């Protein structure tokens, strides 16, 4: 029910028509609408026509035929485009869809390619979280910082190809005078789409042992500080950029100059780390993304990513931030480790305080959680 110019129309003068079927795959009657504008020549105007109706048939629509009403041929150079049945418009990752968008989810590195021009593609990147610090004796260790979160939107051209990198979590730091070594939690690695779009890995938590300390690193979100040796220290800063999109990241928590308190917790994408508290909370901004792709951490009906790692010290330990942050651990058992960040959330690793004084004890913080890349576009 679209009025178009026929094959007797003036050359280079064409009409445009649009037909829309709602819920074409459902087992219910289908409403439809159409609108068209047509012009025959300078003397005859068909103007604008709009129709709506109901297809009283519950069978799914699996094919569409187009033919002229008067049994003549369709005019040369006419074109028709079908939307909604062709499936994914790009390749790469695990492909899912909801009622509005198609999602390409990468939980490990791979490749993404647009199969046609895509307007309004959106990109969500989560970097790997930093590892938590370790300590023994009268000192607290810092929790690992969450991986940075980055969002952007862009137009993708047909055939455009991207290398997708999913960042890994940093390994936990070692704090132990008995083995003669000391190291902060390692930072997480970046997640990226191509070379110009990236989220920055989370900073490692600070460790302590043998009256010396190892500095926490900055990153997407900063790692927490230690208070070893009666020092007041500052957590790592956030370096996640928002220059070309939207970036999320916060600083790690500080630690006061006391030998009887915990260190700082790791920063999260939604809040900074704290002095002696839980890891910084992540963000639930992209709830619909995670619901459609079964990613993120469900908390009271919302989905969070990029929580900071909890701290630990002589009074006990603290939880990781919502969004995959690892919990801190406080123990006197040999070689017990802290909780790692949840995989594919960018959560920071939890800190470890271990007061086992025997030989061979290597108290290490939890590892950071790996990152995540999701690309979506309108169906």
Structure description:
With 379 residues, this protein is mostly beta strands. Helix content is 2%, strand content 30%. It has a 6-stranded antiparallel β-sheet with strand order 5-6-25-8-10-18, covered by helices on one side. Strand 19 (297-299) and strand 20 (302-304) form a beta hairpin.
Question: How do you describe this structure in short?
Answer:
By secondary structure, the chain is mainly β. The protein is built from 1 helix and 25 strands.
**Arithmetic mean pLDDT:** 86
Share of β-strand residues: 25-35%
Helix content: under 10%
Q: Tell me the major beta sheet.
A: 6 strands, antiparallel
Count of alpha and pi helical runs:
1
Class of secondary structure makeup: mainly beta
Strand arrangement within the widest β-sheet reads: 5-6-25-8-10-18
Number of strands: 25
CA-based gyration radius: 28 Å
Give me the strand/helix succession.
Answer: EEEEEEEEEEEEEEEEEEHEEEEEEE
Shape, per Cα inertia axes: elongated
Separation of the first and last Cα atoms: 25 Å
What are the low-pLDDT stretches, counting only 5+ consecutive residues below 50? none
Features:
single chain; 30% strand; 6-stranded antiparallel sheet; mainly beta; 379 residues; 1 helix
Can you lay out the helices and strands and say which pair or pack?
Layout lengths: L15 E6 L8 E12 L2 E12 L34 E2 L2 E4 L3 E6 L3 E5 L3 E9 L7 E2 L13 E8 L4 E5 L8 E3 L4 E3 L7 E3 L3 E3 L7 E3 L2 E3 L31 E3 L38 H7 L3 E3 L2 E3 L7 E2 L2 E2 L11 E3 L20 E3 L17 E7 L1
Parallel strand pairs: 9-24, 23-24
Antiparallel strand pairs: 1-2, 2-3, 4-7, 5-6, 6-25, 7-11, 8-10, 8-25, 10-18, 11-14, 12-13, 14-15, 16-17, 19-20, 21-22
């Amino acid at each position: 029910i679209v009025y178009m110019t026929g094959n007797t129309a003036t050359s280079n003068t064409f009409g445009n028509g649009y037909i829309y079927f709602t819920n074409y795959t459902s087992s219910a009657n289908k409403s439809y609408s159409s609108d068209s504008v047509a012009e025959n020549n300078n003397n005859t105007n068909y103007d604008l026509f709009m129709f709506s109706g109901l297809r009283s048939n519950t069978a799914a629509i699996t094919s569409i035929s187009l033919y002229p009403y008067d049994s003549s041929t369709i005019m040369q150079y006419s074109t028709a485009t079908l939307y909604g049945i062709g499936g994914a418009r790009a390749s790469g990752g695990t492909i899912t869809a909801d009622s509005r968008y198609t999602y390409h989810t990468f939980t490990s590195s791979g490749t993404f390619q647009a199969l046609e021009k895509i307007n309004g593609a959106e990109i969500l990147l989560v970097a790997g979280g930093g590892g938590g610090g370790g300590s023994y004796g009268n000192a607290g260790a810092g929790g690992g910082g969450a991986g940075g979160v980055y969002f952007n939107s862009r137009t993708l051209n047909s055939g455009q190809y991207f290398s997708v990198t999913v960042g890994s979590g940093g390994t936990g730091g070692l704090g132990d005078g008995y083995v003669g070594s000391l190291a902060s939690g390692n930072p997480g690695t970046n997640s990226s789409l191509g070379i110009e779009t990236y989220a920055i890995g989370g900073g490692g938590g600070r460790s302590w042992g043998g009256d010396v300390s190892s500095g926490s690193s900055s990153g997407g979100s900063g790692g927490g500080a230690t208070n070893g040796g009666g020092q007041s220290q500052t957590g790592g800063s956030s370096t996640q950029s928002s220059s070309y999109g939207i970036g999320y990241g916060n600083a790690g928590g500080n630690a006061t100059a006391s030998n009887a308190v915990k260190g700082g917790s790791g920063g999260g994408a939604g809040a900074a780390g704290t002095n002696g508290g839980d890891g910084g909370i992540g963000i639930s901004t992209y709830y619909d993304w995670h619901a459609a792709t079964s990613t993120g951490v469900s908390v009271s009906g919302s989905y969070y990513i990029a929580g900071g790692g909890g701290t630990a010290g002589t009074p006990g330990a603290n939880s990781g931030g919502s969004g995959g942050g690892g919990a801190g651990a406080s123990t006197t058992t040999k070689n017990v480790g802290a909780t790692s960040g949840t995989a594919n959330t960018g959560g920071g690793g939890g800190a470890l305080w271990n007061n086992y004084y025997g030989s061979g004890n290597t108290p290490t913080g939890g590892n950071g959680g790996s990152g995540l890349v999701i690309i979506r576009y309108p169906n």
